[in-house]
Design brief:
mainly beta, 4-stranded antiparallel sheet, 11 strands, 0% helix
Length: 112
């Protein structure tokens, strides 16, 4: 059974940083492109960042370019999202994705 478990969310002030983690099990992690999505209240879920296989090339939504960094550790079966210079508009539930598999989400709230 595939499981994706996110962690690292929380409350942070504008300009602050958080690092999200997503631990994967039940799949051959190194063969999956991994993605982070987010969904803010009243809005559709949107793709934030992706890290591809096999070379680990990355892509980002325009709204987070230069502030967020996605990375992966194929030994630990974990994908990360480093989020810097956070803004109030980054407030959302962040989800880890591997094809049709989704995590339960972790809340990120950016507020003073």
């Amino acid at each position: 059974q595939v499981q994706l478990v996110e962690s690292g969310g929380g409350l942070v002030q504008p300009g602050g940083s958080l690092r999200l983690s997503c631990a994967a099990s039940g799949l051959t992690f190194s063969t999956y492109t991994m993605r982070w999505y987010r969904q803010a209240p009243g809005k559709e879920r949107e793709l934030v960042a992706a890290i591809n296989i096999p070379i680990g090339s990355t892509s980002y939504a325009d709204s987070v370019k230069g502030r967020f960094t996605i990375s992966r550790d194929n030994v630990k079966n974990t994908v990360y999202l480093q989020m810097n210079s956070l803004k109030s508009e980054d407030t959302a539930v962040y989800y880890c994705n591997a094809l049709r598999h989704w995590g339960q989400g972790t809340q990120v709230t950016v507020s003073s």
